[in-house]
């Protein structure tokens, strides 16, 4: 039960952070991505703060023998850069640049009833479904 409450609390804090930082506002995000035009650098501070907290936390947490609410750490096994990774990163970036949303902020924006978030989330789910179809063994 503690694991689920912890996950819920972390999700709520993350969602609130996305709202406060305006990461759920597509116009704010697109302004940040418009480096050749009317660039809005404010989200760079949000990202810098997030990287500082995440990087420091990672160093501290990984010095533990195991996580607080799990039996062991579950870290990625793959360390190489391959075509699917680059293609996925490119698709992610294109989607973010066209819509101003990425998955976390889009889900937070759903709770506020932002119509574009519903369109983005539907397209994201369709893309995930298509990926599963294309990756399934023949």
Overall average residue pLDDT? 89
Radius of gyration: 18 Å
**How many domains is the backbone divided into?**
1
Strands, count: 0
End-to-end distance, in Å?
40 Å
Low-confidence stretches: none
Secondary structure tally, helices: 6
Range of strand content = under 5%
In helices, the fraction of residues equals 55-70%
> Could you say which overall geometry the principal axes of the C-alpha atoms support?
globular
Taking the sheet with the most strands, its summary is: none
Structural class comes to mainly alpha
Run of helices and strands: HHHHHH
Report on the structure:
The protein has 138 residues and is mainly alpha-helical. The protein has one domain (2-135). It contains 6 helices and no strands. It has helices at residues 2-20, 26-33, 42-61, 83-99, 103-110, 115-135. α2 crosses α4. The model has no long low-confidence stretch (mean pLDDT 89).
List the helices and strands and how they pair.
Elements: H1 2-20, H2 26-33, H3 42-61, H4 83-99, H5 103-110, H6 115-135
Helix pairs in contact: 1-5, 2-4, 5-6
Structural descriptors:
single chain, 138 residues, mainly alpha
Would you summarize the structure shown here?
The chain is built from six helices and no strands. With 138 residues, it is mainly alpha-helical.
